[in-house]
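[job 4471] stage=fold_predict status=RUNNING
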Amino acid sequence: MPTLEVVGFNIVCATLGGFIAIFGLVSYLLKERFYLSESCTQKLPQLVHAVKLTTYLVISLIAGIIFSPGATNLIRPLEYALNDQETLNTVTLYFTRLVLGIQLVLAGVQLPSRYLRVEWKSLSLLLGPGMTAMWLCTSLLVWAFVPNLNFLYALAVGACVTPTDPVLSNTIVKGKFADKNIPRELQKIIIAESGTNDGLGYPFLFLPLYLIKYVMEGGAGSEGDVGTAIGMWFYETWIYEIILGVVYGATVGWIAKELLHWAEERKYVDRESFLVFAIALAVSQL
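[job 4471] inference complete, writing structure tokens
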């Protein structure tokens, strides 16, 4: 039975992001009428600017490899985690969630109003037959090139690389290269597809995982069969993770939009907090 994961990182993100978002709604009112200091709020646009510099991802990746323990050993993540591999894995996972969550929200913010409603046919083709074909082709390649690998494991690996990463896609839809070589409409559809396919990659991943758990090698101690695997796939993945996630995200997004418009009309929010509002909202929902 799925349960809410109330852990320290989630609590910190929800508290910090929620506070920044709520404070941002009345930041101008507080700053102008109660004469609060601007020393912190003046630096907020720098955060927005830093997040957008994802075009340097490849260079950063190369630098990370150079500084890693396998090369110059200048950066030692395992040592920072007190030589506990499990702790290091947990910290890496949380920071990955943080970066990806912020980028997904920024991808949505970049799109025009009602874009998904207008381009739903194109997105349906990309997210339906397109992703399915990518998943199967990638899985077949993994299965063909990795010796003695069960096809279910190949399907799981293929599902991990099928979704177009919104951070990577930003390198071809933003900047001088994109402005000169990528048509504006193509940029928008790439942003929309990369922002929505992460959640829709769940079915491709969890179908083989459930089959591995309940079917492969007699279930390896797990009680169930193919019917159990398919049932869990529909209930936990489609209903709980995807459909409920879409409903929750749409509800929170609509409420946040209305609150931001309300605060802007009454001049309660200053420009700096207006710009950082999307980032705060993304962090609070991790």
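[job 4471] summary: The chain has 15 helices and no strands.
[job 4471] exit 0
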